UniProtKB/TrEMBL annotation:
One of its GO terms (cellular component) is plasma membrane. InterPro entries: DUF3817_TM. Residues 18-104 form the DUF3817 domain. It is a multi-pass membrane protein. It comes from the Bacteria. This is DUF3817 domain-containing protein. The chain crosses the membrane at residues 20-41, 61-79, 86-103. Keywords: Cell membrane, Membrane, Transmembrane, Transmembrane helix. It comes from Halothiobacillus neapolitanus (strain ATCC 23641 / DSM 15147 / CIP 104769 / NCIMB 8539 / c2). It is found in: Cell membrane.
Length: 117
């Protein structure tokens, strides 16, 4: 038994990492929307509603992404060092692109090679 999951409830490495891979892009896009669109609208146009809408959406996506990241690390699907990198990248605009690339490589490592026809 690995981590805290019973043997039958173990999420597959590729499924968990694909989910995290998508979430890093979505969360990263929400951070970019918050920092580069909503905040300038708030202060430049004196329209705080933009941040009141985009901020909680980004917050929920961040928490969801960190939950999937935590499960991936605890389940042993992602090394702690790579998990720390994904976490730190989530704090930086455009860091989601770096995480996506890292997770693409990790997925290629976990998924079986398909036979060439």
């Amino acid at each position: 038994m690995t981590g805290t999951y019973p043997e039958k409830a173990q999420p597959s490495a590729s499924r968990l990492l694909r989910h995290l891979n998508v979430m890093t892009l979505v969360e990263g896009a929400s951070l970019i929307a918050l920092v580069l669109i909503a905040v300038p609208i708030k202060y430049g146009l004196d329209f705080p509603l933009a941040v009141k809408v985009v901020g909680p959406i980004h917050g929920a996506l961040f928490v969801w992404t960190m939950g999937v990241l935590l499960v991936s690390v605890i389940a042993g699907r992602l090394a702690i060092s790579k998990g720390a990198g994904v976490f730190l990248a989530a704090l930086i605009p455009f860091g989601g692109l770096w995480s996506h690339r890292l997770l693409d490589r990790e997925l290629a490592h976990h998924e079986p090679k398909s036979p060439v026809k």
